[in-house]
Specification:
Helix content: 40-55%
Structural class: alpha/beta
Shape: globular
Order of helices and strands: EHEHHEHHEHHEHEH
Length: 250
């Protein structure tokens, strides 16, 4: 049970948060782990020795970067997720192993992709599948704004075309995703890091997730305001009875 009294569905023991660079998946994972006292498995992206070189020269360092991630993610998931944890009933991760293929499809040549697929297929069959995947969807403009705001050195001068291509690949991947239950949350209008109400809203969606595929489109802040105004206006009108005299303006 969380600090707010909510609980995950009983069938969720392994939950993964996914999204493009800048979607907020690591932030959400960390907040959920704190809320539910869950075990946290975070991607070790900054340990990749090729990553900074890749962002300067994607074509020249794509294959080395991708293979390092593939092996690192496999080792981490096979060791951390497969082992039972007597102190935590829920494990939270900020990536799924299959996400590696999304980056590979964008960054590798055809010949490199053939070799990559051969290695990845062997690894993928041996890993535990999440009970639920939450995909944090966002527009490219939103992702770029969040990347700039967090200010990681190796992400300076991120090519907007690269983020756009990743975003398109992610959306395509999860549109066809059937490996596990899936919840897609559009986060363009949510700031769950700084707004407790938005975080509670996401908690509620995860808590009521089903075993199929679900999609949640939050109401924009301006539309919420209009709805609240309309409710109070209607409530005010309802309080005017037949015995009440309403004066017309002069």
């Amino acid at each position: 049970m969380s600090q707010s009294g909510t609980v995950f569905p009983s069938w969720i023991n392994y939950l993964c948060i996914e999204g493009v660079i800048g979607a907020g998946k690591t932030s959400l994972c960390t907040m959920l782990a704190r809320e539910y006292d869950a075990r946290l498995v975070l991607e070790q992206a900054e340990e990749n020795p090729f990553l900074e070189k890749f962002y300067r020269d994607r074509r020249g360092f794509a294959f080395q970067t991708q293979l390092w991630f593939l092996v690192s993610r496999y080792r981490q998931l096979s060791e951390a997720v497969a082992q039972q944890d007597l102190f935590h009933s829920v494990t939270l991760g900020d990536y799924i192993f299959a996400k590696d293929r999304i980056f590979a499809s964008v960054n590798l040549s055809d010949d490199e992709m053939l070799l990559y697929e051969h290695i990845a297929d062997v690894m993928d069959d041996k890993l535990t599948r999440p009970d639920l995947v939450v995909y944090l969807q966002a527009s490219t403009e939103t992702l770029l704004r969040r990347i700039e705001r967090r200010g990681r050195p190796y992400e300076y001068n991120m090519d907007p075309r690269y983020i756009a291509s990743l975003n398109e690949a992610y959306n395509h991947f999860f549109f066809h995703y059937t490996d596990t239950p899936l919840l897609i949350i559009n986060t363009n209008e949510l700031d769950f890091v700084n707004n407790p109400g938005d975080f509670d809203e996401m908690l509620e969606q995860i808590r009521h997730a089903g075993r199929g595929t679900g999609y949640y489109q939050p109401m924009a802040a301006r539309d919420k305001s209009k709805m609240i105004d309309a409710v109070f206006t209607k409530k005010g009108d309802a309080e005017i009875t037949d015995d009440t005299t309403v004066e017309e303006p002069d």
